[in-house]
Write a structure and sequence with these properties.
This is F-box domain-containing protein. With 359 residues, the protein is an alpha/beta fold.
Length: 359
């Protein structure tokens, strides 16, 4: 008996079956997950999701990340941002980012500051600004008033002009990360923040007539790259990583000349710049670091893996009086043991330190 032909009903079922693979799985996620996803999407695109389906109509209003990113100017997004913040009606913001490519006009400074205040009122934890292009930079003053917040933990600025002589972030008791790049800090004589742990100031313009002082007692990391004509005073730091990229860079120039006492310095990381052409700079720092506990010399090595590691746990009973009596660990990391490395080892050996090689 020949097999029976499949009827219309069966054929229709076969035609419909593949449609199951076209289901919208993203829309089945809970609202919290959708809001989290939209927090990483540029705000303009996040708003456009309202036309996807009824489920998406209001999700974008509660996204905790606002990223205003445009290839144009502030003027082109001003009306959009004003309406966006109004419709959100005070929903919590974790991250607020403003990035443009064509700068801004003078009359738009007030608008940007209103957006900053609104974001902080919505408990923003991170603010990022990069207003590139145009002849007018975003000008900020009275930062202790403008950025006053109990929730702010991270601040990033690019292409900003600071007009304060004192960048005081004491009104941000939770601030831990501050990054300033490609900005103007001509008038800043001091940067102060008690809670700050990570500070980066790179590619900035400053004055030669004075040096900017940094008051951040809890600072764990500091990056200064073409930031100041004169290096800030660092004598109160607890941890220092001084990794110069060029032998023509005179980081620390005034501190070395004045020979301050680094009375709080416990961990010190230096590269080959501090050992060339001789060890004078290295000797100066060590002689004025009375409580130093760990010294790491990273010589011509990019890390984190090194061909050669030379370690020593000094005995405080025999260590030279010119060195910290608290010194517990000395590490020399390099690719090869060349003349520079040998000179460093000879210098340390004069202070009663012997080393073991680890490859």
């Amino acid at each position: 008996m020949p097999p029976r032909k499949r009827g219309r009903k069966g054929k229709a079922a076969d035609d419909v079956a593949p449609a199951e693979d076209d289901r919208d799985y993203i829309s089945t996620l809970p609202d919290d997950a959708l809001e989290h996803i939209l927090s990483f999407v540029p705000a303009q695109d996040a708003v456009r999701t309202c036309v996807l389906a009824r489920r998406w109509r209001h999700v974008w209003k509660s996204a905790k990340g606002l990223h205003i990113i445009t290839p144009g100017s502030i003027e082109e997004v001003r009306e959009f941002v004003d309406h966006l913040l109004l419709i959100r009606a005070g929903s919590t913001i974790d991250t607020f980012e403003l990035r443009t490519q064509e700068g801004m006009f003078d009359e738009e400074h007030a608008h940007v500051k209103l957006w900053i205040r609104h974001a902080l009122a919505c408990k923003a934890q991170a603010l990022q600004f990069e207003i590139y292009g145009g002849s007018t930079m975003l000008e900020l003053w009275d930062v202790h008033l403008l950025f006053a917040s109990q929730h702010l933990t991270s601040l990033e600025f690019a292409y900003v002009r600071f007009t304060d002589c004192f960048l005081n972030f004491s009104s941000c008791p939770a601030l831990q990360h501050l990054r300033i790049r490609k900005s103007e800090i001509f008038d800043a004589k001091r940067i102060s923040c008690q809670s700050l742990k990570h500070l980066s100031v790179t590619d900035c313009n400053s004055r030669r007539t004075f040096r900017t002082r940094i008051q951040a007692p809890n600072l764990a990391s500091l990056c200064l790259d073409e930031a100041f004509q004169r290096a800030p005073g660092l004598s109160v730091a607890k941890n220092l990583s001084l990794l110069s990229k060029s032998s023509n860079t005179f980081i620390f120039r005034r501190d070395l000349t004045c020979c301050p006492t680094f009375s709080h310095l416990k961990n010190l990381l230096l590269n080959e710049y501090w050992c060339m052409p001789d060890v004078c700079a290295l000797a100066c720092i060590l002689e004025h670091s009375p409580v130093l506990e760990k010294l790491t010399l990273q010589l011509f090595s990019k890390g984190p893996k090194h061909q050669v590691e030379i370690k020593r746990n000094p005995n405080p009973k025999v260590i030279s009086a010119a060195m910290s009596q608290h010194l517990k660990i000395v590490e020399v990391k390099c690719e090869v043991v060349d003349d520079t490395v040998l000179n460093v080892l000879k210098f340390l050996s004069k202070h009663n330190m012997c080393f073991t090689f680890e490859e």
